[in-house]
Design brief:
Layout: E1 2-6, H1 10-21, E2 25-30, E3 41-44, H2 46-54, E4 64-66, E5 68-73, E6 78-83, H3 85-91, E7 95-99, H4 100-108, E8 116-118, E9 122-127, E10 132-136, E11 141-144, E12 146-149, H5 156-162, E13 168-179, E14 190-196, E15 199-205, E16 211-218, H6 229-237, H7 244-250, E17 257-263, E18 275-277, H8 292-309, H9 314-338, H10 346-352, H11 355-373
Parallel strand pairs: 1-2, 1-12, 2-8, 5-14, 12-18
Antiparallel strand pairs: 3-7, 4-7, 5-6, 9-10, 10-11, 13-16, 13-17, 14-15, 15-16
């Protein structure tokens, strides 16, 4: 089949790898002028790593391994700890933080040089009984048998299917960076999650001497951006226990980026006819579980599996993919939205969820996600 893919991010390139390997003809369209080289790091848990391995993508030599997540209070007290090494031992796929640039590079390795057409923004998608057509900002069109919208939380393809106003803002936003900050944590396999009344902080090694760091603060789309965001972060979080002050001292404004958290209610059927969605286009969620990229990769794996079955009308296979994904992704999305991490009030979390219970819950959840993709 001739398959059009809108978006050349993690989801779009992964879809292309999967469908090309199955013998389909694939064309990818991306609004950016070239492959993205910016952005911070993403966390690839065992479930995402399993899918990448199935796609022929190795993460050897890139990123930083994560064996343990420690949750701390802002004054440095340990609240709970989660062992991720057990998942690597059991399933053979370790958890890593890897820069988005490196992940996209590994996904692109071996793909045809002319696969992605850059610098064209999708404006609309239409379909008849036998074909689907995408129209682009330069006046050109492309027609295929199927179309996959992998164009993120601002998805044009989703808006064509669902209309406006579906994705809603959540209550937090994230200031983040990927920086060469020379502290002990940068060379370790420990991921710190720190919460206090001012917000939250996450710190983890991304390999090559880089530290992935972020700060979550209360946010709404109407809030004005601070004129000096790094100075504001230092004012708000600088009194927290080490290593937060050291991270803020070593951070640079040039490394700093912001994104507001958003979500949408997952639909049981998120495509229509010969069109379907993957990743944030279908299920935007807050990043509290670190599952955004991993769930996108699970989408790709299930979509490839369903299309490989053949025999049926391909429209039937697209709906089978969505039906198969719905129970799992709707659970993950709800957990991400309702996670106690969103409350950012550690004493309340501790009273409602004792530390041993939190560890058990997180470990079981991690294993369930991993097992679904292996």
């Amino acid at each position: 089949m001739e398959i059009l893919v809108i978006g050349a991010g993690v989801g779009g390139l992964a879809v292309a790898r999967s469908l090309l390997a199955a013998g389909h003809r694939v064309r990818v369209f991306e609004q950016a002028p070239a492959r993205r080289t910016g952005g911070a790091a993403v966390t690839i848990f065992s479930n995402g790593a399993a899918v990448l391995s199935d796609l022929g993508v190795s993460l050897d030599g890139v990123g930083g391994r994560i064996d343990r997540i420690d949750a701390l209070t802002s004054d440095g007290r340990l609240r709970t700890s989660m062992n991720l090494a057990h998942a690597a031992d059991r399933f053979g796929f370790e958890t890593k933080a890897i820069s988005r640039r490196d992940l996209l590079g590994r996904l692109a390795d071996g793909l045809p040089d002319d696969l992605v057409r850059y610098g064209v923004s999708c404006q609309s998608v239409t379909q008849d009984r036998g074909q689907v057509t995408a129209a682009f900002s330069d006046g050109s069109t492309a027609t295929g048998d199927l179309l996959v919208g992998a164009d993120g939380h601002h998805s044009v393809v989703r808006r064509c299917l669902w209309g406006e106003g579906v994705v809603q803002p959540a209550t937090f936003g994230t200031w983040q960076g990927l920086s060469p900050i020379d502290i002990d944590l940068t060379g370790s396999s420990l991921h710190l999650m720190i919460t206090g009344r001012e917000g939250a902080c996450g710190l983890m090694s991304a390999g090559d001497g880089l530290l992935q760091w972020w700060f979550d603060v209360r946010w709404s789309p109407a809030d004005p951006r601070p004129a000096a965001p790094l100075a504001e972060l230092r004012r708000r979080f600088g009194h927290w226990a080490s290593p937060v002050p050291e991270v803020l001292a070593g951070a640079s404004e040039d490394d700093l980026g912001f994104f507001g958290h958003h979500w949408n209610k997952v639909r049981q059927v998120w495509g229509e006819g010969r069109i379907t969605l993957v990743g944030d286009a279908a299920h935007t969620m807050p990043p509290t579980l670190g599952q955004g990229a991993n769930q996108t990769l699970e989408d790709v794996w299930v979509l490839g599996r369903e299309l490989a079955k053949g025999g049926d009308d391909p429209v039937v296979r697209l709906r089978a993919y969505e039906k198969a994904r719905y129970p799992h992704i709707s659970l993950v999305s709800r957990l991400a939205r309702r996670s106690p991490a969103n409350w950012r009030i550690p004493p309340v979390i501790g009273r409602l969820f004792p530390e041993t219970s939190q560890t058990t819950m997180l470990a079981r959840f991690s294993n369930r996600l991993t097992a679904s993709a292996v």
